[in-house]
Amino acid sequence: MSHTEFKLTTAERPVGRIAILTMDNGEDHTKPNTFGEEALASLDAALDEIEAIDDLKGLMLTGKPFIFAVGADLKSFTGMDAETAREAGVRGHAVFARLQELPFPTLAAINGACMGGGLEIALHCDYRTLSTGAQVLAFPEVFLSIFPAWGGTQLAPRIVGAKNAVETIVTNSLNNNKTMQPKEAFERGYADRFIDSATFLDDSLELLEALVSGDESIERDVDPTDGLDEALANGRAMADGKTSGATRAPYLALELIEFAARGGDLAEGRVKEQEGLAELLPSRQAQASVYSFDLVQNRVKKQPWKPDAEPRKIKKAAVIGAGLMGSQIGALHLQRLEVPLIMKDIDESVLISCQEHIERELDKRVQKGRMKEGKARFLKGLVTYTTSYDEVEGADWVIEAVLERMDLKQGIFADLEKVVEPEAVLASNTSSLSLREMASKLKHPERVVGFHFFTPVPVMPLVEVIRPDGVSDAAMSTAFEVAKKLRKSAVQCGDEPAFIVNRLLARFNGAAVASLELGNDFPEIDEAIRKLGLPMGPFVLFGLVGLDVALHTAETLQSAFPDRFEVDANLRAIVEAGKPGVYDWDAGGEVYPEIREAIEVDEDATPRSEEQIRRAALEAIADEIRTMLDDGVVADARDIDTAMILGAGFPFFMGGICRYLDQTGISEELFDRPLVTKDDGAQ
């Protein structure tokens, strides 16, 4: 069985015959129940059976072990046109409405993961119970540039109120697809009872019987309009801040929630959802989102470029350089690998700070209930803080996280080679330097790989795994395996300056910065770029990563590729002004006067329009992508999109960057071909 079936059984109970409807796709919990055309047909057929039984007193809907249902089958969304999308909305509404209209009490027993259409079908039941072991509940649709279109926007405000509906449907989705833990979902009103997982189904059935017999009743005192105006205002502000209006989904979801909350007719609301789905699902943004979802949830997790070689088993790990970055990397390795860890630095005071950081992170996990206190003590005892390389002996995996100086890194690798076995893997967290040069003086250069984290390390999901010429398959396989154990998404890149994310951002932002000399202002340039839906413009980003870092990257790339990269004179002047960023946030976000004074504008220049600023940046990044693909630096455009989504915050609804350039016709216009082809080189 591949599609979800609604399996019907009945049981004679003291209150009479009760129907139990179980959603099950025949797979284990790693493949959750989804709703496609066949699943809806199965529900329709089950409802035919249910309606033919004349002595039923109630119905309980539940899922297979650990899974309730996680919504529509996203694979079916690809290439969907408006009419097909509308029909999908009509079909879902029709069958869910049949469930809602059954003439006896219905109860959804939410036993496991419940998202999207799964939460919507639960809302169509009269009552809901929720297991303490249900893990996650969510409406992720707005994250995918659609909205809950099988009754979600119409029923949620009525059942949990406007504030909760807006926060769970819109705000959470825009906040990196935040989900609800079971307790939060219960407190928000998505369930009437919160039941221990050990006795969940039995207790849920007993509650349904009590509701049937009248021994128990559940009343909800919900005013859908309570806090509505404030919730809508907050939702629109969140949508503006996160998307700059580049996708319509959050705004349409808010309109539909408002319609329901103000007492709109449910049947009319369903039609509005159908029309909205017909508008959004075929859109560039939704189609790009489905593509992006597949990249980060499926393709990258398969590690398509991992060699077919046995990875080295990690029994001991070491981090060289215990500053802020090294401390974060060390803490992650300790928590995920759970093997003896060596933190090495030349400065005792740095090591003291590192120990405080690592132990503080473990204590936080204990306080949040994510780790037992005994486990934290055990892990703390696995770490050795040292200034000596002798302690590194026996390490299978060593990663350096020191300053970006080639001589320093070469010296560290030379010292490491004296104490570790020839097969031990040496990794560098360099963001731009040549791995081949770094390994060139070693007896065993084939064991050196790049392993570039993004900051903050605990939060950012991407690791760029750099494959230098001559590296062994075993070393690369080990790097991919470590990334998997660290729960990071690994994207492979060739050994060229700045790799994927930093190289492309430098070209993209460099073209935008060039608008300064034409007379465009800082906020104007930032806003023009943000309207693509990006989290921030170039000058805000420079303040975040450091102006000196931005300049260093530009200089590195100019040295490597002088025909395509140049160090903008205004960027250099900005850095030389000596301020922490472009904007003085203590003064309300005004540009520092010293930075304004440092800028030089061409006398005869004409400022660019917002569209021209964006176009210049997009053409520049398109050209760099084409070069990287043609040169084999990155094997497939999908790898670039994955990296830009996970490492640079490019939104799902852009499809990273390559898919956006294809969808908008820019790649065809510039190169007479798309960047993303039907053939995935990884498969």
Determine Rg (CA atoms, Å): 28 Å
Helix content: 40-55%
What is the CATH superfamily label of the largest domain? 2-enoyl-CoA Hydratase, Chain A, domain 1
Mean pLDDT: 96
Structure description:
This protein has 683 residues and is an alpha/beta fold. The chain folds into three domains: 5-282, Alpha-Beta Complex (2-enoyl-CoA Hydratase, Chain A, domain 1); 317-494, Rossmann fold, CATH 3.40.50.720; 501-632, N-(1-d-carboxylethyl)-l-norvaline Dehydrogenase, domain 2 (Orthogonal Bundle), CATH 1.10.1040. The protein contains 27 helices and 19 strands. An eight-stranded mixed beta sheet has the order 12-11-10-13-14-15-16-17, sandwiched between helices. The two termini are 25 Å apart.
Features:
globular, 2-enoyl-CoA Hydratase, Chain A, domain 1, eight-stranded mixed sheet, 683 residues, six-stranded mixed sheet, Rossmann fold, 3 domains
Indicate the topology.
Layout lengths: L4 E9 L2 E9 L12 H16 L3 E8 L3 E3 L12 H19 L5 E5 L2 E3 L1 H7 L3 E5 L5 E2 L13 H9 L1 H13 L7 H7 L4 E3 L4 H14 L14 H16 L5 H13 L4 H15 L3 H16 L17 E4 L3 H14 L3 E4 L3 H20 L5 H8 L2 E4 L10 E4 L5 H12 L7 E4 L6 H5 L8 E6 L8 E6 L5 H13 L3 E6 L6 H13 L8 H9 L7 H8 L1 H14 L8 H8 L6 E2 L5 E2 L1 H6 L11 H21 L6 H12 L9 H6 L2 H6 L12
Parallel strand pairs: 2-3, 3-5, 4-6, 5-7, 6-8, 7-9, 10-11, 10-13, 11-12, 13-14, 14-15, 16-17
Antiparallel strand pairs: 1-2, 15-16, 18-19
Helix pairs in contact: 1-2, 2-10, 3-4, 4-5, 4-9, 5-8, 5-9, 8-9, 9-10, 12-13, 13-14, 18-21, 18-24, 19-24
